[in-house]
Amino acid sequence: MFTKSAILAAVLLLTAATTAAPRVDAAQGVLLPDLRQAPPGCPGGYAGDPVQCGDWDVCPVVDPSAPNGRCVGETAAKAVRLRFTSSEENIGDGPLLLYGNRSSTENSRMSVRQALRAADGSIPPDYASAQQATRGYTYYEPAMAHQHWHLMNFEHFALISKTGATIVTDRKNGFCLGDRYALPDVSDLEHVPGETGADAELAERLRANNCRHQEPNALDVVEGISVGSGDDYTYQVDFQWLDITHVPSGTYDLVNTVNDDRTLAEKNYDNNSSSVSLSIEWPRGMSAEGQSIRQAPVVRFLRSCPGQARCS
Known about the structure:
The chain is mostly beta strands and 312 residues long. 8% of the residues lie in helices and 34% in strands. The strands form five sheets. Strands 13-10-9-7-6-15 form a six-stranded antiparallel β-sheet, with no helix packed on it.
């Protein structure tokens, strides 16, 4: 037989389960971010013709498994990489704000919740108050060039054939998000943080965000991008490349996509991909598996298609 206290406890638990983490489509008065994928190979904040962007190269490397191998001469190389800068930008109504959290250091990952800015200006201050559960997670990357907590699966790269077949996919899927540059069209956006208020305080925090640098024992972390800002990774960074060692000569689409599984709530998903049509030509043909490269391929960017998943 249940006591009154037991029944009351059950009611409270049921109420908490049904009111915590409301669905975004049921939330009222929230301002959502809008993630825009910048064209591959362009520096963060670039406002010119995307096909003229030069933040990319062809890099022969000795060790195909090295995250950031030094570019070498063709005769010493065992693999060839197409390296390129990638950038993601927030042109929405509210900040992209993500809180990572784990209960103890025994967990190697932190689960991630998305905090949504209310129309009254309030912004959830921590993981417990963030409204939206996600499938995302963070983990601590110990490599010397990083040593901070990476948000996984935020953006992906792929090389796609003219028939739509996926030829090569990326190996980089971890990011430390922050406000790294101002958008060239920032004046067109309505909800850019001002000089005071919760948005301004959050933007100041995100400009300095280092994702718990050299804190492998951290139990929480913040990641995000304010309205009017972007986060870029230059082509010299670890894993900012696709391996094209065994990609035949031809025309392909280089496609960068942010939030491709839509686990993060946005006001618009139509601009989450940008692509470049490019040609690859092997002057002396591809080398056999395990052999040195005869001559690196010639890669040309033919056309850029911002906001589109296909270009060729």
